[in-house]
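Entry:
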Amino acid sequence: MSRSLALFAIGLIFGGGAGFVLAAANGVTFDGHDHSDPAHHGGHQAEAAAHDHSAMINLPAGPNAPSMKIAVVKDPMAGWNLHVLPQNFEFAPESASAADQPGKGHAHVYANGLKLARLYGNWMHLADLPKGEVEIEVSLNSNSHSQLMVDGVPVSASQVIQVD
């Protein structure tokens, strides 16, 4: 009986590992969101277009246009702390992936061009950054994930840090 349980456990471990590798090789993320599969975007073209990460929303310049500054500071214990300071923009985590609302949405955080996460508030801890010079970039995005632009210029900010 104990040998059967051991073989069953080994099968689960190797089977799960093989499934993970197969999913990762086909572009499926940890949350099961496959950007290459329209079914993961509501199943038809209109909803797929609404979740197009390459789409942009261009807004006119003016006193009510969104803008942003960031500060990346070394954490005294480990890693780095990112502080995002948007103007004319409100984080709306409850509306992520829903219909766009003017002046509301979330941010995308990148390290050397690689997306790390969505950001739904003003602070984020950055751990395990690559060694050397690292560019941290943050973009403001609508609820539908479209990047916000003002007069054709993306609403984003970046800072280069030196990671030891």
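The chain has a mean pLDDT of 80.
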